[in-house]
Amino acid sequence: MRVSRIQAAENRETVINVASRLFREHGFDGIGLKDLMKGAGLTQGAFYKQFASKEDLAAQASKRAMESAAHRWAAATAASPNDPLGAVIDFYLSKGHSDERMDGCPVAALGSDAARQGTDVKASFEAGISAYLEVLGSMIAKADSEKTNEKAMAVLSTMVGAVVLSRVVNDPDLAQAFLDAATEQVRDTVTA
After folding, report:
1. How far apart are CA 58 and CA 94, in angstroms?
2. DNA-binding region located at which positions (predicted)?
3. Do the beta carbons of residue 127 and residue 162 sit within 8 Å?
4. Which end of the chain is more exposed for a tag (fewer CB within 10 A), N or C?
5. Domains of the chain (ranges plus CATH)?
6. Using an 8 Å Cβ cutoff, are 53 and 74 in contact?
7. Counting runs of H as helices and runs of E as strands, what totals does the chain give?
8. Dist. CA 93–CA 88, nearest whole Å
9. Is the predicted pLDDT of residue 42 greater than 80, yes or no?
10. Can you say whether the dihedral through the CA atoms of 147, 186, 70, 84 is positive or negative?
11. pTM for the full model?
12. What digits encode the pLDDT tens for the residues 159-183?
């Protein structure tokens, strides 16, 4: 049975959305096309009608994951308009976010994997990271405009690193200590 163009476009969006979550959970090489397509409720044969390659899907899914993360940052800042930077810090460096492998930050989940991917995947991450830095920079500039870009880079690096480290240790107290130390360090960086 032939699929309409509208249904094909919807299927493609479904695959991208599912892949953005499953790649964050399993890594780019930790899940095959068969399981990705099964997660989207489609057959593996449908994949080749939608994407040129798994790397093409990885690039699209990475872009979607970064967009999703940006929406979560926006929601955090909207919930706390008087302290948007504090809201982002509190959200990002929370135990809840650290535990969200499928829906959490794609940089923390896939950063080292993305470094081994092709230019299209890296471009999706670079665009997302640039957006993170722009948002952080605009918030930091309100607090202190001196060296805004460098501070935004330090804040993002610290936050991502803390989430990665909190995820790779078994000891929940140590995991929380990484998040707490990063929260303190980021707040000190912003106010310094």
Report:
1. 27
2. 32-51
3. no
4. N
5. 54-191 (1.10.357.10)
6. no
7. 10, 0
8. 8
9. yes
10. negative
11. 0.89
12. 999 999 999 999 999 999 999 999 9
